[in-house]
Design a protein that fits this description.
Pfam families: Alpha-L-AF_C, ASD1_dom. Belongs to the glycosyl hydrolase 51 family. Its EC number is 3.2.1.55. GO terms for molecular function: alpha-L-arabinofuranosidase activity. This protein has about 675 residues and is α+β, with helices and mostly antiparallel strands. The chain is about 15% helix and about 30% strand. The chain has ten helices and 35 strands. Strands 3-15-18-19-20-21-22-23 form an eight-stranded parallel sheet. A seven-stranded antiparallel sheet has the order 2-27-29-30-35-32-33. Strands 4, 7, 8, 10, 11 and 13 form a six-stranded antiparallel sheet that branches. β21, α8 and β22 form a beta-alpha-beta unit. It starts with a helix and ends in a 17-residue tail after the last strand. The model is unreliable at about 1-25 and about 660-670 (pLDDT under 50). The structure holds 2-acetamido-2-deoxy-beta-D-glucopyranose (4 copies). One 2-acetamido-2-deoxy-beta-D-glucopyranose (NAG) binds near residues 41, 43, 44 and 45. One 2-acetamido-2-deoxy-beta-D-glucopyranose binds near residues 62, 507, 509 and 511.
């Protein structure tokens, strides 16, 4: 912040009778109404442009955000690899249907896929007739998916599996609901499966159940091998495999970028388990999958490097690939041996950006994407700055030099914090992570006020209020984070991008609390942190207006000028966070904008608050704490707006355009 602003804060303190807000326990709301004022100049020049990618998403494979989440694959452990490469192995969560007198199930290494050799063997001992008749419904195996599959009436699902048997096979493939009711079924009969054979079918559901399972059964005596069993709804986003409701909730944020695939997931606890892009491309059946040893679950890697790039493209977000540079949480590759890792990274960039005739670009084209992906950012590692091999022994520089040598335009992100000290190595951006309590987060609005204006810009790729006071994602957390983001916006000359973390959580695997978006097999809701981010989406590519705030320190504010690309309408947006228990009358004074040029019918006041600062959303009350938009009928360049205790508000003054107004402009413009 400019020194002028700091002086005003001091002035405000000396002029006002101030209760000690910051000592008040959260949630205490007092009757006193205080006053504050905010002045800004709408015609300020030169214009201060906020990055087009200022606010975006950090996607990490944590809490089943991908496997069992955004990736719509319904089958968990589809290749039977989760139990490890040695057989016999555990097939969890697959479950056997039938007792030992009727079926014996085991694993062996007979798969036709070289990188994932484990296959399932079912030795069916019972038969349609004779002494050992199979129980009604047959015997076999079922997969419950990730805490139940969401099967919906009228929807279609593509089921694919590989089968082999020396006898003719007769099998039923069905979705079964939680009350054992059949929701969809199809039978196959094949007497020519001596070699592995791919079976593909589309099942249409005639019933709904959010806790279903996929079942493969037979009543015929035979020995059947199964492998790579997949079930995907046909209605994924663009047919690209993303669960539509989870895609939509991300797209609604209009993210400027998406960082992937982590986080610590990039590093791995051990190198052998780290995300290796090359193992995640190509035919899904041939991907080995990995044990996500940081967050402790298996992933089949259906959501691989290609799919992440596709996701970014579908979201209209800039992909930010975080690459493992030979450093895991517990191990480091010797820098003298790092060159193969460097080459592997260059190959990955060529896979994304090379034309379809290049070696790696052709692998991408073969997956159906002829045009290059718009990869412009590569982050070298995650939270690795203080690992010995990163800076001191030079692994970072090997990556930096090699990438810049081939792709000079790619922006490289270092893990080392340049906000306080000058870096000892080149970088285009530096990664900055903050997890702290609500008060600290709110006061960190000033964190970048004194950062160097000359060095690389900040990528605040992970921020979150954590700890008991944040609950499972409450209003308090969202307000503190909103205050922090307002500070980032005010410092957008040195902060280029920011994203909260973690993004997603499957309620059935809440390993990190709190998260921005909560889901189960069939439902999803945003926490207040998610909704708070909606009020920032207009900032991407907007113009920052300097503003001077005179107020208690529990208030923070920023102002932008922005144009809605869809409607072509322009607005002045003032955002204010009240992180205290007092109501405030905020006097707003805007220079350089006269009343005649304000379209009051299109101006709005958006409020994010609740009766209790600890309030959260839930599946039953998904919008208990969500922005409420009201018309601002008396919009003018000088007005007083009431700021409720513990609230985040956005005042949007629509500017009259010079063109003839269309009738629609009399309606309230909903910018959410
Ligand atoms: C507003 O900004 C413009 C352009 O920078 C400047 O000419 C004008 O004097 C400013 N108005 C006030 C009241 O500061
Ligand atoms: C999400 O992951 C973190 C880290 O493993 C874990 O502590 C948290 O319990 C998970 N959340 C859920 C809902 O599983
Ligand atoms: C605009 O309207 C407000 C409120 O009606 C008034 O206080 C202010 O003086 C007006 N501004 C101008 C430039 O007329
Ligand atoms: C807005 O203007 C109307 C009519 O001019 C007036 O009745 C109303 O009290 C005003 N509201 C506020 C919040 O000033």
């Amino acid at each position: 912040m400019e020194p002028k602003y700091a002086a005003c804060v001091v002035l405000a303190f000396s002029l006002m009778v101030i209760t000690t807000y910051y000592l008040q326990p959260h949630g205490v709301v007092t009757d006193a109404t205080q006053t504050a004022s905010l002045s800004l100049n709408a015609s300020q020049s030169p214009a201060k442009k906020i990055s087009q990618r200022m606010f975006g998403l950090a996607f990490e494979e944590i809490n089943h955000s991908g496997a069992g989440g955004l990736w719509a694959e319904l089958v968990s452990n589809r290749g039977f690899e989760a139990g490890g490469p040695n057989t016999p192995s555990n097939i969890s969560p697959w479950t056997i249907i039938g007792n030992e007198a009727s079926i014996l199930v085991s694993t062996d290494r007979s798969s036709c896929f070289d990188k994932n050799k484990v296959a399932l063997q079912m030795e069916v001992l019972c038969d349609v007739d004779g002494e050992n008749i199979c129980p009604a419904g047959g015997v076999g195996v079922y997969n419950p998916g990730y805490w139940g599959m969401n099967i919906e009436k009228g929807k279609r699902y593509r089921v694919v599996f590989y089968v082999r048997s020396l006898q003719p096979v007769e099998m039923s493939i069905s979705f079964i609901g939680s009350k054992d009711q059949k929701l969809a079924t199809s039978d196959i009969k094949d007497d020519n499966v001596a070699e592995w054979k791919k079976v593909e079918m589309v099942l249409e559901a005639y019933g709904s159940d959010a806790n279903s399972r996929l079942q493969l059964t037979t009543s015929k005596r035979s020995t059947i091998w199964l492998d790579q069993v997949s079930a995907l709804p046909l209605d994924t986003h663009n047919g690209h495999g993303f669960r539509q409701d989870l895609f939509d909730i991300l797209a609604a944020l209009k993210p400027g970028f998406i960082r992937f695939p982590g986080g610590s997931y990039v590093e791995g606890d051990r190198l052998m388990n780290a995300f290796r892009w090359r193992e995640t491309i190509g035919a899904w059946e041939e991907r080995p999958g990995r044990f996500n040893d940081v967050w402790q679950y298996w992933t089949d890697d259906g959501l691989g490097y290609f799919e992440y790039l596709q996701l970014a493209e579908d979201l209209g977000a800039s992909p930010i690939w975080v690459v493992n540079i030979g450093i895991s949480i517990n191990e480091q590759v010797d820098t003298s041996l790092i060159m193969p890792f460097v080459q592997d990274t260059l190959d990955a960039i060529e896979f994304a950006r090379g034309d379809a005739s290049s070696t790696m670009g052709s692998a991408r084209a073969a997956m159906g994407h002829l045009e290059p992906f718009d990869l412009q950012y590569v982050a070298a590692g995650n939270q690795d700055c203080w690992k010995k091999n990163y800076r001191v022994l030079g692994s970072y520089m090997k990556f930096y030099n090699a990438i810049k040598g081939v792709y000079p335009d790619i922006k490289i992100i270092t893990n080392c914090d340049a906000s306080a000290a000058v870096l000892d190595h080149p970088a285009d951006l530096y990664d900055y992570h903050v997890y702290t309590n609500a008060n600290s987060m709110f006061s960190m609005a000033h964190n970048f006020d004194h950062a160097s204006r000359n060095g690389p810009k900040a990528f605040v790729s992970e921020y979150a209020v954590t700890g008991g006071e944040a609950g499972r994602g409450n209003l308090l957390k969202a307000l503190a984070e909103a205050g922090f983001l307002i500070g980032l916006e005010r410092n957008s000359d040195v902060v280029e991008m920011a994203s909260s973390a973690p993004l997603f959580v499957n309620v059935n695997n809440q390993r990190f609390n709190p998260d921005a978006i909560v889901f189960d097999s069939s439902k999803v809701y945003g926490t207040p942190t998610y909704w708070m981010q909606h009020l920032f989406k207009a900032s991407n590519g907007a113009t920052l207006l300097d503003s001077t705030l005179q107020s208690p320190s529990s208030l923070t504010a920023s102002a932008i000028s922005w144009t809605d690309a869809d409607s072509g309408r322009s607005y002045i947006r003032v955002k204010v966070v009240n992180f205290g228990g007092n109501r405030l009358n905020l006097r707003l004074a805007i220079e350089g904008l006269d009343n005649k040029s304000i379209e009051s019918a299109g101006s709005t006041l958006t409020t994010l608050t609740s009766t209790n600062v600890k309030d959260e959303n839930s599946f039953n009350e998904p919008k208990k704490v969500a922005p409420v938009i009201n018309a601002l009928k008396n919009a003018s360049n000088k007005m007083t707006v009431i700021i409720p205790p513990y609230s985040f508000i956005s005042i949007d003054l629509q500017r009259k355009s010079n063109v003839i107004q269309d009738a629609e402009s009399n309606g309230v413009h909903a910018s959410l």
